[in-house]
UniProtKB/TrEMBL annotation:
Top-rank lineage group of the source organism: Bacteria
Protein's recorded name: Methyltransferase domain-containing protein
Any single Pfam family the record assigns to this protein: Methyltransf_25
Keywords (A to Z) from UniProt: Methyltransferase, Transferase
Biological process terms in GO annotation: methylation
Naturally occurring in which organism (per UniProt): Jiangella alkaliphila
Amino acid sequence: MSSTVSDQELKSRHRAMWASGDYPQMVTTFLLPLGPRLVDACGIGAGDRVLDVASGTGNAAIPAARKGADVTASDLTPELLDAGRAVAETDGLQLTWVPADAEHLPFADDQFDVVMSSIGVMFAPHHQAAADELVRVCRTGGTIGLLSWTPEGMIGDLFATMKPFAPPPPAGVSSPPLWGSEIHLDELFGDRVTFGRRERATLEITAFARAHGYGEHFKAFYGPTIAARNNAEKNGRADEFDAALEAFCDKWNRGTHERARFEKEYLLSIGTKS
């Protein structure tokens, strides 16, 4: 951004967007499997110093704590951390919850053994700044683990579907699903991180009886969709947005008319800091 003030305004909008709707409800509806997958891939164990960046409700941080790790969960949106803290307390788990901007992490250099993010840091607007912070706070020889939606997959297409209805992004802001591109990660991290494991997989979703129920769920609970539709409504295009979202749901339904099934592709990337 061109100034500190404009960057603060952008982050304030991001905070408000993710606090809108009910993202914790989305997590419990179909996103829960992702956190444990990333934790297992990172090989997290007892005593590891772990930072979960853009942790949201702690979908990866909480499983890491269950492994006995010393876990810090950070996120731009305090409301999401509050939801995660409540879950952790119910489970009798101790984590450190820190409101933090992924592009300006309030942690020391080389502080953590594992720095990870499950569909979180990809939504930081300035990708290079966020990647630089992940590297900075990870110790040499430590692990950087990322799980991100791909540009070619269902969420990548969702953002492409919503783009014509959303306000134009500020200069310097990149599309979130780019984090699911191997080429983009190489550009962000260069020779600072060696990715020994990179694989694409899918999250299967069977929580909706009808395909359009997926779209209704996103309009009710998902901040980016809520923001795009609000902008469409302001411009007299709400019906057009709804029709585009329904067509998107029909396109990606891999099930039947009576029982929808979706497959969301993600890229799992596990690297070592050089």
